[in-house]
Design a protein that fits this description.
- This protein is of the alpha/beta class and 268 residues long.
- The protein is 41% helix and 18% strand.
- The chain has an eight-stranded mixed sheet with strand order 1-2-4-3-5-6-7-8, sandwiched between helices.
Length: 268
């Protein structure tokens, strides 16, 4: 697969499907393999998917120095330029949703529609990840037990019902094992997430926006999605009852349908 040069590094990029372009922007530590085949297969029926890995993640080149979500948005814009995509639909998940906000704020003419999933505007008005969740993840990482880290992360990112489902953890663990991010990269991305703040600028965003958020999200509680939707003019909030942070894994067909219907409402 090709690599696109950006900011002294390179981004791994893949394209699949047929239709209008849809750029998928992953979250903290995530890479293009982590979307899962069910979600990608549901989307590629209607879109040409543009999948890529952030700097320092997956099959992309190294990450050197500090980054911000605005820097990662500049990477995404450079990617679109390099592959001659003038205008695209965008789906951003978690940290990727923060990057997507910066991309849409900086280059609204390049965005046909925007879907923000399981994300936050940051700043003092948003609700950060709870101390209990942070402590649970920290304890798992410090244990040095990789399976405990994966199990803890999985239980925190999905609803209890999905966590208990047969085979769901095993599928998650298999995807997580593909090109795992290093601890330094995760720390750099976490710093970018903590510093992210679009709260004061989202009222000026003029891109058709759908916000999808699970009501049982423990990583970024539902109130964050509600706030993001309330700030963006004309945005619609889709609350997924009983679903956790990883909405595209729990409900791939539903999330794909919501993205498809949102995009279809704003042709041209």
């Amino acid at each position: 697969m090709p690599r696109v040069p950006v900011a002294g590094s390179e981004l791994h990029v893949e394209r699949r499907g047929d239709g209008e372009p849809l750029l998928l922007i992953q979250g903290l530590g995530g890479n293009s393999a982590h979307w899962g085949e069910d979600f990608l297969a549901a989307l590629e029926r209607d879109f040409e998917l543009i999948l890529y890995d952030h700097r320092g993640v997956g099959r992309s080149g190294p990450l050197t120095g500090d980054i911000t979500t605005a820097d990662l948005a500049a990477d995404a814009l450079a990617l679109l330029d390099a592959i001659d995509i003038e205008r695209t639909h965008v789906f951003g998940f978690s940290m990727g949703g923060m990057v997507a906000q910066e991309l849409a704020l900086g280059a609204p003419e390049r965005i046909a529609t925007l879907t923000l999933s399981s994300t936050t505007a940051g700043g003092t008005q948003s609700k950060p990840t709870s101390g209990e969740v942070v402590q649970a993840i920290t304890a798992a990482v410090l244990s040095g037990d990789r399976r405990r880290v994966l199990r803890t992360g999985f239980d925190l990112m999905v609803s209890p019902g999905f966590a208990a489902g047969a085979g769901n953890f095993e599928a998650f663990a298999a995807l997580a094992a593909q090109y795992p991010a290093t601890i330094p990269t995760l720390m750099d991305q976490q710093a970018a997430v903590v510093a992210h703040d679009t709260y004061g600028r989202l009222r000026g965003l003029k891109v058709p926006t759908l916000v999808i958020h699970g009501t049982e999200d423990q990583m970024l509680e539902f109130i964050n999605g509600d706030l993001v939707a309330s700030l963006i003019p004309g945005a619609r909030l889709e609350a997924l009852e009983g679903i956790g942070h990883l909405v595209y894994a729990e409900q791939p067909e539903l999330v794909a349908r919501l993205v498809r219907e949102h995009a279809a409402g704003y042709v041209g």
